Amino acid sequence: MVHCSCVLFRKYGNFIDNLRLFTKGGSGGMGYPRLGGEGGKGGDVWVVARNRMTLKQLKDKYPQKRFVAGVGANSKVSALKGSKGEDCEIPVPVGISVTDENGKIIGELNKENDRILVAEGGLGGKLLTNFLPLKGQRRIIHLDLKVIADVGLVGFPNAGKSSLLSCVSHAKPAIADYAFTTLKPELGKIMYRDFKQISVADLPGLIEGAHMNKGMGHKFLKHIERTRQLLFVVDISGFQLSSHTQYRTAFETIILLTKELELYKEELQTKPALLAVNKMDLPDAQSKFHELMNQLQNPKDFLHLFGKNMTPERTVGFQHIIPISAVTGEGIEELKNCIRKSLDEQANQENDAHHKKQLLNLWISDTVSSSEPPSKHAVTTSKIDII
């Protein structure tokens, strides 16, 4: 057992989801006082999203973690306007949030070639600066990776999330019979016959107290912020992390997962959610599933069994509840269809909301413009003679 945990620790050590970098824009070039020449502006430092890039690759390639742009050229007789210094680009993976030293968000990079200016170059010397150049901006930035996926798998360790991901997609995550199999986000894609693709993220397993950064803690929770929907995966036979921890039924597992999400960030509970009840191939699974459905349909009848600190403010209303077995394949096709249906419904709702917002803005704009008195220079159509 010790051997396994050591191997897993080394594996996790290869995955990096945050980095601290020093950036500095280039200094401007000197002006040319005698002829009024202007020095070139210093180069800028940009963070640029690149597919197939990882933060580990960035750290390995630039171990000093310093990024400085080029200096602007001096003004001279042959070139009174100095050329701009060379920009510096920091290649990062898609899904990066960039913050400054105070935690203020500078920007996010959600797709290939997105770019953010993080350190501006200094102005070149000119008349206003007495022909002396200005230094470039210095800035410490933090890169924080949050996986972007359509669906994020939520579940305690050993719920079968890795097995499920390998069932529904072409991903090949590590699968074993010890609790913490997944120690870094794994991404897979569900491929449909009409070539529709839906991305699914298997994320490091939650444990009770994850919101307080126990276990994988925030390393897990921050990654589900960018998923469009949540897919809860629970073991029908319940869950027990170790002999020193309390056994939890499937219903208790769902309540505790909900509470962890609520304590970390309440907005996560507003995401559409589905529930996959796994390991339906086990003995007595059917009777336990009927019991679970009764508990989910009447949660208030059972919440009094939980301590106040374990009871979420609101329970999750699952759009679909699908019994599955990642081992035998039972219910997998139905699950894939439900995932697609749920995402399509969400997309339609978002489109409707967007159109309604546009119409409202248009109506407000028309109302404001019609209520404003015409200026004395305005020409109204009633005064125009149309020939």
Automatic annotation (TrEMBL):
Q: Where is this region: Disordered?
A: 368-387
InterPro entries assigned: G_OBG (IPR031167), GTP-bd (IPR006073), GTP-bd_Obg/CgtA (IPR014100), GTP1_OBG_dom (IPR006169), GTP1_OBG_dom_sf (IPR036726), OBG_GTPase (IPR045086), P-loop_NTPase (IPR027417)
Q: Which family does it belong to?
A: Belongs to the TRAFAC class OBG-HflX-like GTPase superfamily. OBG GTPase family.
Q: Which domain of life is it from?
A: Eukaryota
Domain named Obg: residues: 13-148
Q: Which PROSITE patterns does the UniProt entry name for this protein?
A: G_OBG (PS51710), OBG (PS51883)
Chief subcellular location: nucleus
Which interval of the chain is the signal sequence? none
Can you cite an annotated GO cellular component? nucleolus
- Keyword Ligase on entry: no
Keywords, comma-separated and alphabetical:
GTP-binding, Nucleotide-binding, Nucleus, Ribosome biogenesis
SUPFAM superfamilies for this protein: Obg GTP-binding protein N-terminal domain, P-loop containing nucleoside triphosphate hydrolases
Upper lineage is:
Eukaryota, Metazoa, Chordata, Craniata, Vertebrata
Asked if Coiled coil is a keyword of the record, the answer is no
| GO BP annotations listed | ribosome biogenesis
Supply the name of the protein.
Answer: GTP-binding protein 10
Ranges for domain OBG-type G come to 149-344
Where does it localize?
Nucleus, Nucleolus
Question: Which GO molecular function terms does the record list?
Answer: GTP binding; GTPase activity; magnesium ion binding
